[in-house]
Design goal:
Elements: H1 2-5, H2 17-21, H3 27-53, H4 56-79, H5 92-128, H6 134-139
């Protein structure tokens, strides 16, 4: 997800509430809202494809992550219209950070699962080559 939108985020700085309430918003504020709406959709797609790629345990973890993503996205969506009106939104930042943290944690778990799968496959190949890892066998 970060690879597709991460390079745009620096141009999507959000102004402070007082500026927005006074009508001082700019294109960067609109871009922030667009990226903020697109990010959870890309997270859903990424988690969905990842869940299909690995085993049952990871699939269950991914489904829990999707449920959390939906819950916290709704919580952000409830508070979002209050920001430009300069109304209180005491927990919107917490909900956003939980969303980002959940996505990053899912990425880490995916990486660990892929490394484990790779090391399992590598060990199996070494056994078939008489104990010589694939890289060593290719060099020889």
């Amino acid at each position: 997800m970060s690879g597709s939108l991460g390079f745009i985020w620096p141009f999507a700085a959000m102004h402070q509430r007082e500026v927005l309430a006074a009508g001082g918003g700019t294109f960067s504020d609109v871009l922030h809202i667009i990226l903020g709406s697109a990010s959870p959709l890309l997270m859903l797609a990424t988690i969905g494809f990842g869940a299909a790629a690995l085993g049952k345990g990871f699939r269950l973890y991914s489904l829990v992550s999707i449920a959390m993503l939906l819950v916290f996205s709704v919580l952000v969506g409830i508070d979002a219209p209050r920001v430009p009106a300069n109304l209180p939104t005491p927990l919107v930042g917490v909900w956003e950070r939980i969303l980002i943290g959940m996505d990053l944690l899912w990425d880490v778990v995916l990486a660990v699962m892929l490394l484990r799968a790779r090391s399992t496959v590598g060990a199996g190949e070494a056994g078939r080559r008489g104990g010589v890892p694939a890289e060593s066998a290719a060099a020889a």
